[in-house]
Structures are given as structure tokens and as C-alpha cells.
Give the backbone structure.
Amino acid sequence: MLEENFISIKKRLLLNLINEVTKEFDELSKNPKYKIVKPSIPILWFGNVEKYFKSEVKIITVGINPSCMEFKKNKKLNQYDITFRFPDYIAKCTPSLYLAYNNYFKENPYKKWFNENFKNVLEKFNASYYENQKFPNIAIHTDIASQYATYPRWGKLGKNVKEELTKRGIKNWHKLMEILEPDVILFSSNATQYVKEINKDLKKLFQVYILFLDLRK
């Protein structure tokens, strides 16, 4: 009963944050300078957050921002579709976003990126994004610089646009971390400017082990 109450409280907090970020997303999407993919949705996390809360070790992985590939059926065409990877999404319905995030790895995940970046290291922690792998820990993925997919991709955006999105994205990410309270954070990027932002304030709030991965070939 205590566990159910705990998850119920966390769910309510996450739904409130989804509402907040969706309002920001809707506002920014109206301005073409931000290059936000249309149609798309804000993505606060990927993976089953309720199984994450029940894990022996709560593990978060961190990237920069969601790929535009999350909304493409064909990588050669600039045609986007939300339900390709998020079939549970219903327009203007916050609970459906919560469900769509949780079911991401059950439906049609962008396996190539997630497997190349985190699969092996997650297994060292007896963890996986996939619930059918029978690891005791279910990890979820987040993005620190922005929760919004863009095209052109992040590296090709203008400096001012990236700075504006990052200011908002980091704020959203830290709000999410306060709710998720991870035991372990795994960061995969060569973008060292975000390292201090991941460290910022987290250890003041709760004990967390942070590992920065250099996955350059």
C-alpha cells in the first residue's frame, strides 16, 4: 500500500510537470526560429517510470535532446508522425503523454541509438530499458538541454537558439530530477558544458552517483 501511495504521488507530480512543459512547448512551437519538429510532442522521459520507481537501483540516462528520428518513419524524408513511436498519444491529453512515455520501449523505440549509447553500460548495473530483459532495474532516459526534437539537429542549430532552449531545458530537467530522485545518472555526450549542469544542486537534494561516459570511437 505504501508503494502504491508513493507512486501515486510521484505520478501526480509528473503529470503537473508534463502540463507545465507542454504549455512551454506549445508556445515555442509557434516560433519558427526554434526549429521544433512539427508534428511532435515534448518528451520528458523515455521508459516505464513506475517500474523505475520499483527498481532496486534507480538509474537515469541522459542525452542532449530528443532526436527528430523519434518522429520519422523514413529517415530520408522530412515527414513527421507522432504516433509512429508514441501510439498512446492523444492530442491535448496529458495522461496520454504519461502513458506514451512509459510505453516507449514496448512499442517502436529508436533501438539503434539507445543500444549503441547505453545498452552495455546499463547491463553492468543489472539494468535495461526493456521490461522483458529480466533485469532487476528498469532505467529511463532523459535529455538535459531540451525536451524538444528539432530539425536541423542540435549540433546544427544557431548558437542563440541553443542557448535559449538550453536555459529552459536544464530548468525542466532539474525539476524532473527532483521528482525522480535517481541513485545513478549516466551521461553520454562529448558536450562537456553540460557536465556542471548535471552536477548542479543534485547532491544537495539527495545522494546520487554520476558517471560521465566518453563513448567516442
Observations:
- The CA atoms of residues 68 and 128 lie 23 Å apart.
- The chain has a mean pLDDT of 90.
- Residues 2-213 form one domain.
- Residues 2-29 form the longest helix (28 residues).
